[in-house]
Amino acid sequence: MGFEGSTVTPQIRKLISEHHIGSILLTAKNLKCTPTPPYRMTSMADRTPAAEQTTQLCLELQQIAHDAGHPVPLAIGLDQENGGVNSLFDEIYIRQYPSAMGLAATGSKELAYEVAKATAEEIAACGINLMMGPCLDVLTNARNQPLGVRTFGDDPQEVSGYGIAFMKGFKDAGLATMGKHFPSYGSLEFLGSALDVPTITESLESLSLNALVPFRNGIREGLDAMMVGGCAMSSAGLNVMHACLSEQVVNDLLRSDLQFEGVTISDCLEMEALSHNIGVGGGTVMAINAGCDIVLLCRSFQHQQEAIEGFRLGLENTMITKERLQTSLKRVLKLKAKCTTWERALNPPGLSLLSQLQPSHTTLSTKAYNSSITVVRDKNRLLPLTNIMEPEDELLLLTPLVKPLAASAASQALSEQATNGSPEPQIWERSASVMSGERVFRELGRSLARQRSGRVLHTSYTANGVRPQHENLINRASAIIIVTADANRNLYQHGFTKHVSMICNMQYSSGGEKREKPLVVVSVSSPYDFAMDQSIGTYVCTYDFTETALTSLVKVLYGEFTPAGALPGTISQSQKLSQSKQHWLVETFNEERDSNGLDNLIKSCIENNTPGLHSELSSATSNSFLLRNPDVLESHFVVRNSSTQALYGFCSTYFFKITGVGVIGAIFVDPGRRKLSIGHSLHNRAIRTLLQREGAKRFQLGSRLPSMYLGIPTGHGGERKRLRSWFANLGWNTALSRSVCSMVARNLATWAPPEGMAKSLQSAGADFDLVYGWDYAGPVLDHIKTNNRQGLAAVYKMALADPSACGIIRAKRPEDGAILGTVVLYNMHSRLAEYVPAMKDVGELAGGISSPVISPSAGEFSTLLQGLILLGVRQIKGQGCGACVLDYRDGFYGAAYFRGGFV
């Protein structure tokens, strides 16, 4: 149950001490900065910080429960979703973080986890023990429902990934977790019923394939509680007035089908549609019998009394059985045991802990917002604004009149003005003239002005559309920024923006030539406002309009950092969406400076690989890319953050002087920063470098040495198609590329040559031997010149220089001793093995075979090749190895290898 006011009321005291209510919901109305007596603030010192007031409130509530003989502490829940939904706001002690969709835009589940943990640590310090989150709704009906950026997006797997990251962050900070809003508020339809009950019209089959995926995965990962929504459900075979009152939804779908064993919490039974249709007393009995363990009543003491009376009558009439109550009681006690004890409940650390957390959490907040800002399109390269504006030019900022976010300092200030008897009404309640400005965005205008010497003109727009004042300012300004906030649900914003865009397209220079005026549209809430509208050439998304978000926006507009955010979910995958092509600063790899960063980048790529699939970078390190061979010119490149030293992307290039072959040996990008043109920038720099190499004859993707990437990654299904398409768009002929891979023969202890192989080798007319060291280099290196495959010379020279760990098997013609074929043999301790990650991945003692070369004059090509391979396997088996790695197998030699028993 909830209550009104920021101090303990007689009503909530009675509910706890006399009725033994065990769970409390706190909301923004309970958690305010309060002035100290005489209740008129003159400075920050005159107010009690919200964090301190919240800590005192939670402690007092728990003390009441303790004194009343509660066996376990209260569960005290809070909505702290960040973005625009923060019940607890304190500009000093509680940090602001991006909304769920803003964090999904960062592309980093690790960052999402860090933010979730930090958020939970802060509210836990104040005495909260139940997080009313994460939000697991899949946004399948973006235009017609209110959740917006409170969700992680419209892709069920992506929502699952970020939802679970949030859940783990909350848990690791010691809070219990609650998924919402089952079975999903992401596809609500407003059908215009008398009481306007939003309705889910999808069938259970459709929900199971999409909306229920994050809930199912969250349950599997240990979600503690689930809130069941109060929406209606209407489809074939399913007609439910309120989901949280339906046994078909709670007991059948959630409990039986999804196997949820945690605590089920109803939506608030005080909602007008429910209380009018059923009544709170009857609704309480229905919710409990449907399977709800906790019934939520947010604020009205009258309704709360009705609920208690209905509960009592349900027991007396045996409509609710004691067995049913005991089942719920066990679940609730199990949840409380995870998140609270009397020791914790009566000793919340409060400001002492929050003061310690503040520095690191402030850094995390800035990092999260900087990583979330998304430049969806910048067709004419208007960003940063310094590209197109002279210092003396005027910039026009146009913002809508909107209600400030609860987490906004501007909103807080307005509330305080009202408290102090300010004669000025709150901005969303007054009729403002078009030139009045709007306070929640006024600080944005000031921030823009502080960054430049030229003037920033700032005014608002309303449903009255483009007025003469707007037209005059547009003509006067050198560039225009329009801010929109949920234009899909505020159509006047959409119309105004399109009108201004048309005006900008019709501008003419003093000489009469058409000159399009620069226009930047910034969505500060839902990214769907103009995501698909190609006529808006420069489009930026911030996902909320708190001061912290707008501070990061200003930095992007003025080029203080390159935005790395990407639209989450399927919207970014649409072919209709034109991603901006940014030109990243590409620097030459510096071993001393970048080695640690490259190791971290490799680790990130491996961890984000598709589960169950092998990563080409497995077991690789920064040293794996450095050949240090005088016959190979190597140049490697990075895109990095010069402040943090983190690498966002890496590309290696090699030029083999003997063959004249230039190679892009590897190119990979931080998984959280893909689709931002980092790969394009690295590729372009690599090609420019290879083109300058004297004697260059041809280029190729993938290298024999080092053999991390052996060509265009094959991938699986759609991923393979996407990768080939990416390289094809860069000019590579992917149609002619052939499959290249490493192969492993295991269980050598039981291995035997294929039947009949001995006779085949005798018929080849060749003698085989094994040689070591530079004494044999001359004839061997002359022999391999008969083959133009890239990297052969480098492999053979490395083997010849390491006789203690490498050897060369030769096939010679008996008559004159001419070499007909060779293959390199090496073990796990050789330098060569350092460049073959597959050797480390085998997981047991192994040897390797590399780079077979058969002379064009040899008659029995396939027989000689098989002989070299099989003799190599026999040699490796004789050394006690359990496995043999063939480190570079392409289609030309495939048949012989497979006959040798490789997989």
From TrEMBL:
Question: What residues does the Glycoside hydrolase family 3 N-terminal domain cover?
Answer: 11-335
Looking at the keywords, is Mitochondrion present? no
Any Pfam family the entry gives: Glyco_hydro_3
- Drop me one GO molecular function for this one: hydrolase activity, hydrolyzing O-glycosyl compounds
What does the UniProt keyword field contain? Glycoprotein, Glycosidase, Hydrolase
Q: Which GO terms fall under biological process for this protein?
A: carbohydrate metabolic process; peptidoglycan turnover
Show the stretches that span the lipid bilayer.
none
Q: Does the keyword Repressor apply?
A: no
Q: Which family does it belong to?
A: Belongs to the glycosyl hydrolase 3 family.
Q: What is this protein called?
A: Glycoside hydrolase family 3 N-terminal domain-containing protein
> Which species expresses this protein natively?
Saxophila tyrrhenica
Output the lineage of the source organism: Eukaryota, Fungi, Dikarya, Ascomycota, Pezizomycotina
